[in-house]
Amino acid sequence: MKRFDLRFIFAVAMALTAWQGSVASEPLRYKLPEETAKLRDGTGVQVAQNTCVTCHSVDYIAIQPPKSGSAFWQAEVAKMRNVYKAAISDSDAKIVAEYLAQAY
Asked: Is pLDDT above 70 for 47?
């Protein structure tokens, strides 16, 4: 190939790389559907509303196996705190786990 051809190919490749970088750097935006589910009534519902629903929908709670019991919900709350680093205090974790075991 001639020297001119190589410079042209190099220039086109650099331009495409720069263009791809600018397109990829734009943030993705998602429009989430409006929340329609509500937490069931029960002792501790407000604490659960303030902790659980800040990260995921009520639907996620509702699809868990029904009547799973206290140990299941204690483990789920512990997972949210330890694995996903949810900011839930020890006292709130206990309230949430008890509420979920009773309500779900």
From this structure: yes
